User: What shape does this take?
Amino acid sequence: MMPSKCELCNNLAAYCDSVPDSSGAAHHSNAECAYRLKPLCWLHAVEAKEHATARIRQVLTYEDKAYVYIGRASGDCVCEVCKQPYHRHPLFQLAGYDGKPYLTQLCSGEVCKL
Assistant: This one.
């Protein structure tokens, strides 16, 4: 889970950017070690996207909390925190069109669609 407001203007966060963090190793994957997630509104995300497209990720806001949406993933992917397959993780409570949850919440707080 991350802050639900843009770090630059205090508007509602819609995306996030991975930025270097000198405070120590991050809790993210090895590929993002020593990085932190910076919440951005849509306007600041567009500005940041001009510089580094691959780092921008979508943010879901649910019940005034913001979650990083990492996209689609295989249910057989292994969680870096608990070492269990993604399909063994609980469903995120946000309901889809049919009224049933369709996203999976990982131990890191990120959500994905299997």
Q: What stands out?
A: The helical segments are 42-49. The first strand starts at residue 15 and ends at 20. The chain has a mean pLDDT of 76. DSSP finds one helix and seven strands in the chain.
